[in-house]
Design brief:
By secondary structure, this protein is mainly alpha-helical. Helices cover about 45% and strands about 5% of the residues.
Length: about 110
């Protein structure tokens, strides 16, 4: 994983301010999780780093599109948005070491 040092320090600083990681200087220092991996959802980290997860602005901003009253896909986008949010909320960092990631590949959108 090749992440520029300056970018990595900004990521660690953001995660540290949010209480997700702790940093320790010195010989035995480094970056450590501040919470249990089970309590850190993907949604929490994605939202922290990138802002709210959204497929389209029309889902979160009713004045975004003038075609809202006749739109045929807004309902589909809204449903997909809820499913994506639920998926990311239900996957946590302990799942990285478990078979849940394999299950995600099998998720069926209904």
């Amino acid at each position: 994983l090749l992440v520029p040092y300056n970018h990595l320090t900004k990521i660690v600083q953001t995660l540290s301010k949010a209480g997700i990681v702790q940093t320790k200087q010195g010989k035995f220092g480094g970056v450590f999780l501040a919470k249990s991996p089970e309590s850190i959802s993907f949604k929490e980290v994605i939202t922290l780093m990138e802002g709210p997860i959204k497929l389209s602005d029309c889902i979160t901003n009713s004045s975004f599109c003038k075609l809202k009253s006749s739109c045929k896909i807004q309902g589909v986008f809204g449903k997909l948005q809820r499913q994506i949010n639920e998926l990311f909320e239900n996957v946590n960092f302990s799942d990285l070491n478990q078979s849940k990631i394999e299950q995600i590949k099998e998720v069926e959108v209904v």
